[in-house]
Amino acid sequence: MSQSSSRYGKVYLVGAGPGATDLITVRGARLLSQADVVLHDALVTADMLALAPQADKIAVGKRSGQRSTAQLAINALLIDCAEKYRTVVRLKGGDPMLFGRADEELQALETLGIDVEIVPGVTTAFAAAAETRQPLTKRGIARSIAFFTSATAPQHADELAMPDSDTLIQYMGGREAIATAEKLIAQGRSLDLPVVVIENCSLPNQIVTRMRLRDLAQGLGERQGPVLVMIGEAMAARANQQGDRQAN
Fold first, then answer.
1. Cα distance between residue 121 and residue 57, in whole Å
2. Rounded to whole angstroms, how far apart are CA atoms 119 and 96?
């Protein structure tokens, strides 16, 4: 056994999926049941954490507009946990490799030779497509998809450009709705372009709102949960489509 592997435990970057406990992968659930410690995001539910009753729990969540644990502190905490525990799970909402700061955490761990494994999760866009029964691609209408977010590092704040794709999926899009719509309209996108907004995707308090780009330009108001905005002709409702599942 190498010096690094004997000194450190193994770290797993695990995707929790969009929110519902039964949408985590079988491998992810198994690792939670074996974990010695779980470092979890703010959006991970109590039901999800209940899959790891034996583990110590450490909240390291980052939520827009609220106090959060700085990424450098999270990196240091991961290293500290790898020194103290044999099985460390870093539980991230959605998929670890999409808007999950995985690159920064991987660099910190790999620099010290800490063993890391990544377990993918269902990203919110795919869960939202399933919940709304709205395919993200559609033959003859949409053959390209872009995932984007307005959140970026401060040094890149002026470099944001709207993706050129048939279907646009904006993560964490609630606060940026007006700016997003204005940029798309300035690009020449139709004011009647279909938009589907989903809040708290896959959870019992899920809310789905259908609108047009002109409506998005008016903003989404205050939202209590994470918001995903799906934009494009593929979002047009079918003639006999069933109603969306809403909060109970």
1. 20
2. 8
Question: What is residue 209's three-state secondary structure?
Answer: strand
Backbone phi and psi for residue 7, each to the nearest 5 degrees, phi listed first: -80, -35
Tokens representing 235 are 């979002």
**Which domains are delineated in the chain?**
3-119 (3.40.1010.10), 124-235 (3.30.950.10)
Cα dihedral 18, 76, 83, 114 in deg (nearest 10): 70
For residue range 151-209, what is the model confidence (pLDDT) as tens digits? Answer: 655 445 445 678 889 999 999 999 899 999 999 999 999 999 999 999 999 999 999 99
Task: Give yes or no for a contact between 192 and 170, defined as CB atoms under 8 angstroms apart.
Answer: no
Structure tokens given for 207: 């809310």
What does the block give as tokens for 95? 């998929």
Q: What's the rounded Cα separation, in Å, for the pair 238 and 133?
A: 10
- 131 contacts: CB under 8 Å, gap ≥ 6: 198, 201, 202, 206, 208, 244, 245
Say which residue the tokens 């606060």 belong to: 175
Q: Hey, what are 125's tokens?
A: 């866009």
Average pLDDT over residues 219-246: 92
pLDDT of residue 5: 53
Annotated active-site positions, please? Answer: 41, 62, 172
Handedness of CA 100, 149, 151, 104 (dihedral sign): positive
Q: Are strands 227-231 and 194-199 parallel, antiparallel or unpaired?
A: antiparallel
pTM across the whole model? 0.89
